[in-house]
């Protein structure tokens, strides 16, 4: 009879240490709070003040969308149906993203609290850098579009551009929240990898220590899966819009490049910045997802190598089973498509095909 082996899992609250002092918030996280995207206090407990402020921001967004419908009427009168669809699409996506993000955080507030407690730090170096770059891009685009508005005095144009800028800004905040937590988990996974290598180097293989490291890896995988689930719908909306925007705006940039007047040059510059933004949203997220998955694989390889070199020692069979399972996280956007490098290649290929077909018509 085969002996059954119980696979250990780590309860999400097991390693939570609520005595951890609050970490200093970065500018990116502070902006998230102000715009109602991260309604938690310094200990990442749901804050009544910030949650009410987030609801107020959502109400203001709804009012602004209602006001923008006035310009929709003007677009119908001017027979600019495509522009009308763009405005409605952007506003609807933004409202869904912000409201679903708030609801998701509220429903998963316990899990989110555990994620932050386990990280011990709010500092997201690489993800924050991308956020600041995108913020500068939005400011430059706003200045360009405002100068275009002063030339043509089209209020509907300014309204649409403002909606696009705000939508891009919200996307950047949500992406920063998502990538930032994955970045910290990746750093912790890299620490586990180094500890195993260190133990192998000094030839001090302690089964209990090895089990603790494997257990910690399992715990970080659970946290990463929770992050993926919390951001599922938001990611689906953001990356679907980013893919569509990248394809369409790239074609517009190529079309505009055929003209040489000053207004077209400004539109061309703004379009290039927008293309870079859409592509950056996809690439940056895929990068952090792949980084975490690679670190998980590295830890698995180190565990396999350690076990193979110490077959005669008393290494717990649970560690063997953990290695055989080879757990990892499959990051997806709402379960509809995978957030990996294959997505980047697919988007580039689709864009090239789309543009070639349109140019031949």
TrEMBL record:
GO BP of this protein: sensory perception of taste; signal transduction
Parts forming coiled coils: none
GO CC terms, sorted: plasma membrane
Main location: membrane
Record Pfam families: 7tm_7 (PF08395)
Entry membrane topology: Multi-pass membrane protein
Subcellular location: Cell membrane
Membrane spanning stretches: 20-38, 50-77, 83-108, 129-149, 341-359
InterPro entries documented for this protein: 7TM_chemorcpt (IPR013604)
Keyword Zinc-finger: no
Sorted UniProt keywords: Cell membrane, Membrane, Receptor, Transducer, Transmembrane, Transmembrane helix
Role played: Gustatory receptor which mediates acceptance or avoidance behavior, depending on its substrates.
Family: Belongs to the insect chemoreceptor superfamily. Gustatory receptor (GR) family.
Name of protein: Gustatory receptor
Protein source organism: Rhodnius prolixus (Triatomid bug)
């Amino acid at each position: 009879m085969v002996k059954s082996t119980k696979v250990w899992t780590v309860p999400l609250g097991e390693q939570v240490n609520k005595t951890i002092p609050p970490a200093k918030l970065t500018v990116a996280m502070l902006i998230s709070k102000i715009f109602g995207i991260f309604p938690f206090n310094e200990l990442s407990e749901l804050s009544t003040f910030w949650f009410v402020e987030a609801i107020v921001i959502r109400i203001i967004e709804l009012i602004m969308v209602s006001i923008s419908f006035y310009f929709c009427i003007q677009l119908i009168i001017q027979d600019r149906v495509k522009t009308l669809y763009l405005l409605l699409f952007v506003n609807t996506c933004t409202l869904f993203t912000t409201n679903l993000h708030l609801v998701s955080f509220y429903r998963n507030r316990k899990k989110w609290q555990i994620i932050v407690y386990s990280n011990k730090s709010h500092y997201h170096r690489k993800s924050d850098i991308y956020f600041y770059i995108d913020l500068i891009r939005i400011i430059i685009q706003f200045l360009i579009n405002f100068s275009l508005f002063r030339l043509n005095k089209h209020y509907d144009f300014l309204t649409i551009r403002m909606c696009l800028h705000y939508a891009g800004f919200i996307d950047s905040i949500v992406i920063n929240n998502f990538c930032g937590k994955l970045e910290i988990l990746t750093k912790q996974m890299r620490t586990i990898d180094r500890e195993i290598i260190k133990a192998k180097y000094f030839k001090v293989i302690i089964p209990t220590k090895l089990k603790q490291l494997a257990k910690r890896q399992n715990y970080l995988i659970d946290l990463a899966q929770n992050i993926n689930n919390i951001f599922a719908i938001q990611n689906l909306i953001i990356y679907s819009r980013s893919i569509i925007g990248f394809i369409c705006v790239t074609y517009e940039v190529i079309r505009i490049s055929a003209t040489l007047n000053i207004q077209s040059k400004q539109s061309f510059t703004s379009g290039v910045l927008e293309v870079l933004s859409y592509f950056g949203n996809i690439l940056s997220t895929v990068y952090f997802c792949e980084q975490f998955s690679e670190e998980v694989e590295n830890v698995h390889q180190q565990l396999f190598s350690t076990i193979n070199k110490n077959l005669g020692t008393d290494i717990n069979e649970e560690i063997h089973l953990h290695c055989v399972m080879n757990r990892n996280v499959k990051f997806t956007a709402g379960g509809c498509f995978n957030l990996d490098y294959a997505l980047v290649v697919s988007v580039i290929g689709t864009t090239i095909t789309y543009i070639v077909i349109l140019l031949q018509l």
